[in-house]
Amino acid sequence: MCGIVGAVAQRDITPILVEGLKRLEYRGYDSCGVALYINGQLKRTRSTQRVAELEALIKEDNFSGFTGIAHTRWATHGAPATHNAHPHFSGQDKGEPRIALVHNGIIENHDELRDELKALGYAFESQTDTEVIAHLINHLYNGDLFETLQQAVRRLEGAYALAVFCRDEPHRVVGARQGSPLVVGLGNNENFLASDALALAGTTDQIIYLEDGDVIDLQLSKVWIIDSHGKPVERRVHTVHAHTAAADLGPYRHYMQKEIFEQPRAVGDTLQDIDNITPDLFGDDAYKIFKDIDNILILACGTSFYAGLTAKYWIESIARIPVNVEIASEYRYRDSVPNPKSLVVTISQSGETADTLAALKHARSLGMEHTLTICNVQTSAMVRECKLNFITRAGVEIGVASTKAFTTQLVGLFLLTLALAQVKGRISEEKEADYLKQLRHLPTAISAVLALEPQIMAWADRFASKENALFLGRGMHYPIALEGALKLKEISYIHAEAYPAGELKHGPLALVTEHMPVVTIAPNDELIEKLKSNMQEVRARGGELYVFADNDSKIVNSEGMHVIRMPEHYGKLSPILHTIPLQLLSYHAACVRGTDVDKPRNLAKSVTVE
Length: 610
Ligand code: F6R
Known about the structure:
- By secondary structure, the protein is of the alpha/beta class.
């Protein structure tokens, strides 16, 4: 999704802006641009290509400057075209641009503002909601950009992170945050703004996380923040050790492959320092809150939603607490029946997903105060907004498709299951110790599954020529089938759907022919005989089965039935292990098809708009 970098310094900042954009590339974008103050004028370069292309254009134009802003855009209002790319300019006096602005988020009242500004004589050169803000600021400009921005944001409805500078105040960049992340990076006689601290890695590790409603004034040796009540405010400075190493591919072809292979480490790190199960893993008040609640509401999007669906099976069967799992973008607008005794659990890799944050706020507005998040980013809005949290230690995930974030979320959710079961008195000490032992063995078990890569690559070759695929699972492996189908469609663009295997005969079986590959997750659990019958239904219609089976499930290779054996049967934690081969299958199918694996078309890493 969109990314922002801004700087005010006494040296040429173009390398900092370009490097920042490169660090944000993984989030997904379709155009990019940079604007600088150069010799009394505002200059900009924009491109619908990659940041490397923009960098070449900057060199060609011989751009350098000490104040500027840069942006990667993921189109919402207006096509991905150069004239819609940020920075946007405004300036009616003498026809010269005076204001330069970049924006993440969506301005909901842009139509109304555009009409107003058109009536004042402003001409629009883009279809974006962003250009409206540039003209609004230019219209209100009174010689003090910081004051003007404070006035301007009062007119904006929606979500935004803004960075703005003005030709008439060349040593100043101002910004504002409402609903979209924005951080300040502190330097020595230079200061920076960015939508993510990662963008400033290597430039500064002194980071301030702005809060909703903050407006910020950035000068060479001064950073001034006004909060949502218009009062000056001091925000804590964090020392952030950004994961520069995450940007190195090492021996891998893509970040997604690297991140799949990092899972033993990511799961191990997530379990590090956990000597026993205790509600304190989720925060100081967890015991009291877990005691009080009588049901759980899980809110999330995409892959994180599937982690929530898996957790429902665990929590209901082990902790015996009823669980509802809802897609955040649905829940936030649904007329639901609130229960103040619910534990509201949000799951999010980024901790900035707009729909999940809005769903959380909606739940709270309905009187549900017990909130917990499973999140991969300690400093994110989600962690700040929830009373309790568990931080997964997947490390920065650069591939747009979630892999190690998902498996570490599952680890966090399993720990939550055990802690809830303990507080509710529904698990014996022996059983708890047994589960903890299994969790500790997970990194080794995942490594053994990763060793299946060559066999999975052979399957991927056959998959690559297909345009459709079905995924089947039963019980707690049904959400894993959903995740497998999502992974395949998002990176290889093969249309894939997942069903609980028992549901096949109620409709989807009509799709099964000899051209339809059917991926089946077949662990040797209490549903295996039922699943075998479902597989026969597929074979009888000529469908080709690709089965991940346990050693002892007595499913063997035969005509139309391809079997890969999982190294070990893993009981309740089996969904985590079965995720791995599905990630590898999607990854290699996408490689054979030659898609842009790490940056699939139309998608963004951190979805900060509704
Ligand atoms: C798919 C994927 C997305 C995210 C979803 C939620 O591979 O990554 O479906 O899971 O956009 O993102 P987070 O977890 O950051 O809230």
